[in-house]
Amino acid sequence: MERLSFVLFLTFFLAVNGSGRGQDGSEFFSSLEKIIQTPSLMSTVACANPTRADFELQLFTRDNPMDPVPLNMKNPELDPTKPIIVIIHGWAQSPTAYGMQDMKKAYLYRYDSNVIMVNWQDLAWDYYPTAVCKVPKLAKMIADFLCTLSEIYDIDLETVHFVGHSLGAHMSGVAGYHTQNMCRQKIGRITGLDPAGPLFVDTERPNRLDSSDASFVDVIHTNGGFLGYLGNCGHADFYINCGSIQVGCTMPDYSLNSFMNLPMSIGMCHHMRSIDIWTEAVQTDNFKAIPCYYCPIGCPPVFSMFKTRTMMGERCPRNASGGYYVKTDVKKPYALTSLI
After folding, report:
1. Fewest CB atoms less than 10 Å from the CB: which of 89, 91, 228, 260?
2. Using an 8 Å Cβ cutoff, are 308 and 259 in contact?
């Protein structure tokens, strides 16, 4: 299943981006052939160590909501008395990619805060296994920066909230893991938005998002088993419409001519829906979740429909645990006033 998901993921990448950056079609399909024939998907993957120049931490505040300010240790615009929200984009994305700016604006509207967007787009456009290989290394560098920032400004990392999409979700988790080792502090919260699934199914916990990475980890699942991770990886895991296929995302016909559009349908809309859902959850407190002990397999939880609802979003209670089912509308606003 992981191999199929990954092949679809790469085909989707080619369909969306032509032949990619710096990679012609023959090279792509040669890589794809190796993946199909290789027993262990990561067995032949190696990557260079990224440097500090390979990513940028962009600071936004209410006083400066539009123009990114490169964050450094002496940056006077960082207010250590205000909450810190760190947003990390996914593979083949950037801080200006789909939904990222809307999420940033939603946070600045809701909180007078420091919003830091991690721009790692130069590495995010690498061949997917190479990008995956670099995630733990980048995460460790982010953790080191955060620990130094905490020491200089006397910042309690409990006030820090990471929000990561796809590979960015795992990067957030690994950064949280390393802050505990480097500066003996736990990040307050990590929200994973449909954490990437391909190449992470059998990954050990230190190299992927896990409930031990922060004081509270909540996860939004929208494309599990395809581009997203299928299964619990937080304290509270919210399965949107059962977590794999989203309402309102149309499927193409299955003719040969539409083959290249199939991965886009299976992945793009469903995988990116987690961004839209979370942005709305920042803007409103309207998402109610039903306990779903057997999610994602036993979904929807028909015997839990009358149990107490749990709020999904910024006001999700810290004692929330296990799986939850969230039904949505087919278009914005996605939150439903009734779950039955």
Report:
1. 260
2. no
Tell me the per-residue pLDDT of 234-282, one tens digit each, with 9 for 90 and over. Answer: 999 999 999 999 999 975 554 444 444 455 445 789 999 999 999 999 9
Q: Quick one: which H or E segment has residue 170? A: helix 167-183
Give the residue from 187, 193, 233 showing the smallest Cα distance to 209.
Answer: 233
Domain count, the chain: 1
Alpha-carbon distances, residue 233 vs 195, 225, 236, 269, 273 (angstroms): 9, 14, 8, 22, 19
Residue 332 lies in a domain: no
The one catalytic residue in 5, 166, 211, 244 is 166
In a domain, 38, yes or no: yes
Distance CA 292, CA 312 (A): 13
The question of whether 274 is a catalytic residue gets the answer no
Between vectors from CA 276 to CA 316 and to CA 328, what angle results, nearest 5°?
70
Of 170, 221, 270, 271, the active-site residue reads 271
DSSP conformational letter for 256: G
- Whether residue 310 is contained in a domain is answered as yes
Structure tokens at 229: 């991770």
Active site residue 166: yes
Active-site option among 126, 194, 210, 276? 194
Regarding pTM above 0.85, the answer is yes
Q: What sign has the CA pseudo-torsion 249, 165, 324, 160? A: negative
pLDDT band with cut points at 50, 70 and 90 for residue 165 = very high
